[in-house]
Design a protein that fits this description.
By secondary structure, the protein is α+β, with helices and mostly antiparallel strands. The chain has 5 helices and 9 strands; from the N terminus they run βαβαβββαβββαβα. The chain has a single domain, classed as Hypothetical Protein Pfu-838710-001, CATH 2.40.320.10.
Length: 181
C-alpha cells in the first residue's frame, strides 16, 4: 500500500507532438506508454463531489489498483492525500464496493505517455472525450511541505511554454461538465 501526498497540476495543451518535442529538448526521458481505465465510485455515506474526494479502481496494461484521493489541500493545485493499493481483481473489488453500497459513477479511459524529469512525473494524456492534457506531479511523504513542490511544477510548466489552461478538476469532472452542457 502506498500512502503519500500527491502534488499534481494539469493543463490543456495544443498538441502532443509539440509537447513531446519540448520535453525532449528539456531532457525529459520517456519511461512508458500505457492505457488506463478508471472506474470511479460514489459513496453511500457522503457525496464525493461535495467532499472533493475520489475512490476508483484503475486497471492498466499490467496492474490493478484501488485508489482513494482525499480532499484538495489548497486552491493552487490538485494537492491531496492519496492512498493506493495493488489488487488482483477489479471485478471482485467492484463486487465488494457494491455489497457495501458504493455505486459506479463514471468510467474514464485514457492513453498516457509518461516522462521523467528530475523528480517530476509528467504524463501526456489522451482522454476519451477530452482535448489533449499534460499532468506534472510530484509525490511527497505525509510530512513534507507541498508548497515548494507546487511552485516547482508551475516553473516547469513555464519552461515548457505553458502559462494558462490549468485545471484543478479531475478528468471525470471534466467529462461530467461536458455532458451537462
Amino acid at each position: 500500500m502506498i500512502n503519500m501526498i500527491e502534488v499534481e497540476v494539469k493543463a490543456r495543451i495544443d498538441s502532443f507532438e509539440e509537447m513531446e518535442k519540448g520535453l525532449e529538448d528539456l531532457g525529459a526521458v520517456k519511461t512508458k506508454t500505457e492505457f488506463q481505465e478508471d472506474i470511479y465510485f460514489q459513496s453511500p455515506i457522503v457525496d464525493f463531489a461535495d467532499t472533493d474526494e475520489a475512490l476508483r479502481i484503475r486497471t492498466t496494461d499490467n496492474d490493478i489498483f484501488i485508489t482513494y484521493k482525499g480532499p484538495k489541500l489548497n486552491d493552487e493545485a490538485k494537492t491531496r492525500k492519496e492512498v493506493e493499493m495493488r489488487i488482483e481483481s477489479a471485478e471482485k473489488a467492484s463486487d465488494i464496493f457494491a455489497e457495501i453500497g458504493f455505486t459506479p459513477a463514471r468510467t474514464v479511459r485514457k492513453s498516457r505517455r509518461y516522462y521523467r524529469y528530475e523528480n517530476f512525473e509528467i504524463s501526456l494524456d489522451d482522454v476519451e472525450g477530452l482535448p489533449p492534457y499534460m499532468e506534472i506531479e510530484i509525490a511527497l511523504s505525509d510530512s513534507e511541505d507541498y508548497t515548494e513542490a507546487q511552485d516547482k511544477i508551475f516553473q516547469l510548466f513555464k519552461k515548457l511554454g505553458i502559462t494558462d489552461g490549468f485545471e484543478r478538476t479531475s478528468y471525470m469532472e471534466l467529462l461530467e461538465n461536458i455532458n451537462t452542457k
